[in-house]
């Protein structure tokens, strides 16, 4: 004996789908793009900034803050 199949009697709602992104999903790619763009536009400045100890201290403080 064949089994009866159930059919839908109503259609699903046609409501618009809303998608929200967290702030970092937009900010981090934009920041990375800006940094790469600066490296391309002024490669001489990027080389000079590599020896600056302030950048290392800043990164160290950021990592220490994130480790909390």
What is the ordering of alpha helices and beta strands?
A: HHH
Main beta sheet: strand number and arrangement? none
| Total strands | 0
Query: Which radius of gyration do the C-alpha atoms yield?
Result: 26 Å
Q: What is the straight-line distance between the termini? A: 66 Å
Unreliable parts: none
Fraction in helix: 55-70%
What spatial form do the alpha-carbon principal axes imply? Answer: elongated
What structural category characterises the helix and strand content? mainly alpha
In percent, how much strand structure appears in the residues? under 5%
Count of alpha/pi helices: 3
Nearest-integer average pLDDT: 76
Give the oligomer, counting copies of the same chain as homo and different chains as hetero. single chain
Key words describing this protein structure:
single chain, 68 residues, mainly alpha, 60% helix, elongated
Summarize the structure.
With 68 residues, the protein is an all-alpha fold.
Which helices and strands occur, and which strands form pairs?
Elements lengths: L22 H19 L1 H8 L2 H14 L2
Textual characterization of the structure:
This protein has 3 helices and no strands. The mean pLDDT is 76. It starts with 22 loop residues before the first helix and ends with a helix. The chain is mainly alpha-helical. Helix content is 60%, strand content 0%.
